[in-house]
Design goal:
Chains A, B, C: Belongs to the CutA family. The structure is a homotrimer of 108-residue chains. With 108 residues, the first copy, chain A, is of the alpha+beta class. Chain A is built from three helices and five strands.
Chain lengths: 108, 108, 108
C-alpha cells in the first residue's frame, strides 16, 4: 500500500443528533476529513462502574487520508464532548480511483 | 492470510432506498457478492463546490471474496448511478468457518 | 502493531431487536467484549436455496481485544441462535489511548 494515497475510516459515537451534526460539520469545514456519515440512534451496551448499561447514541463514520490521521486523531479528541470518546481507525485496503482522489484532495 | 479464502467488506452509498434495493439485488443475483446489508437513511456531511452540504443517503455493506474484488470493483462502478460513488474495501481479518465457506461459494 | 494491545471490531447480525439486546448484554456481562452497538432494522439481501431473498435484521458491532478473539469467536458462535451466523472480525489499526485501555481492561 502506498501510504501517501491510503484512505482511512474512523468511527466515533456521541449522545445526540445535534452534537453529531455539529461535530461532522466542524470536521469537514476544517478540512480534517472528506466526509462524515451519521447513523442512529444506535443502542450501546457497555459496563460502567461495575454495572451493565445501555444508552442511545449516534455513530459518525469518517473518511479521511492516512496522512491526516495524526492531526485528525488529536483534534477529534479535543473537539469531542466526551472525556474518553471511542475513536478507532481502520486503514482502507482499496477504493475506487475517483473516490480516493476526492478524499485525498479534501483532507490534506 | 490465505488470499484464496479471504473475505472482504465493501461499502458504498446511494440516494434512495429503491436504488439501494435494486443495486443490492443485482449484485447478489449476478453472484458478485454473497450478501448486501442496507442501512439508512444516514446523514452525509461533505464539501461540494466549496460549500459544506448534508444529504440523506442509504449505505450498502457488501460481503464478498477477495478473489472477486477486481471484477466486483469494476462492475459496481458501472452499475452505480453516481459518477463518482464511494467504493471502499477492507479485507476481513477472520470469520467463522461456516460463514466464510458460504461467502466464498456465493461469490466466485 | 503490538498484538497484546490491539483492538478488534466484530460484526454479527440477528433477526430481532430482543435477541440483539439479549446477546449484547450477555457478551458484555461475561467480559468477552467491552461494548456492543446495535443498529437496525437493516435490510439483508442474499441468495438462499437458489432464490434471491431479503429480510430485516439487526446488526451488532462489537469492540474487544485481539487476545480475547479465540474465546469470543468460539463463545459467540455457541451463544448465537443461528446455525451459521455471520461472524467477521477486523483488527483496528489505531485508537485513542484512553479508549484502547478501557477496551483492554473490559475484555481480558
Amino acid at each position: 500500500m502506498d501510504e501517501s494515497t491510503a484512505l482511512i475510516m474512523v468511527t466515533t459515537t456521541i449522545e445526540s443528533i445535534d452534537q453529531a451534526n455539529e461535530l461532522a460539520a466542524a470536521l469537514v469545514s476544517q478540512s480534517l476529513v472528506a466526509c462524515v456519515q451519521i447513523d442512529g440512534p444506535i443502542i450501546s451496551h457497555y459496563r460502567w462502574a461495575g454495572e451493565i448499561r445501555q444508552s442511545n447514541e449516534y455513530r459518525l463514520t469518517i473518511k479521511s487520508s492516512l496522512i491526516s490521521w495524526p492531526r485528525l486523531k488529536s483534534r477529534l479528541a479535543k473537539m469531542h464532548p466526551y472525556d474518553e470518546p471511542e475513536i478507532i481507525m481502520t486503514v482502507v485496503d482499496d477504493a475506487s480511483d475517483g473516490y480516493r482522489s476526492w478524499v485525498i484532495d479534501q483532507s490534506t
